[in-house]
Design a protein that fits this description.
It contains 4 helices and 4 strands; from the N terminus they run βααββααβ. By secondary structure, the chain is an alpha+beta fold. It has a single domain, classed as Alpha-Beta Plaits (2-Layer Sandwich), CATH 3.30.70.100. The longest helix is centred in the C-terminal third of the chain and has 12 residues, at about 70-85. It is globular.
């Protein structure tokens, strides 16, 4: 059963967008997507809200997400969130296997 996580990153001065751009330019996003059980990792930008970025992150299951959360990449993400002073709102959804 796949697990989808929607993470809304917000702050002022377009910091959420700067955060997303840095995770892409530093190859962090590519490394996450290359993880064995990652099924999706994509940023979306609301047209009318320049202060919010939506990350849709999907994993094979909860165990895969737990492994990812223990990775060095999560430390890098946390450092970038701190750098840009981001606030987060998280939603999780379980999806039946296809």
């Amino acid at each position: 059963m796949s697990l989808t996580i929607n993470i809304y990153y917000t702050w002022t001065n377009e910091n959420a967008r700067k955060f997303a751009k840095e995770t892409i330019s530093s190859w962090l996003v590519d490394r996450i997507r290359a993880e064995e059980w990652n099924e999706k990792y994509e940023y979306f930008f609301p047209m009318e809200d320049k202060e919010t970025v939506l990350l849709i992150d999907r994993w094979k299951d909860k165990e895969a997400l737990n492994i990812h959360h223990k990775s060095e990449m999560m430390k890098e993400i946390a450092e970038l969130r701190d750098k840009y002073q981001l606030h987060m709102k998280v939603e999780m959804f379980n999806e039946a296997s296809k």
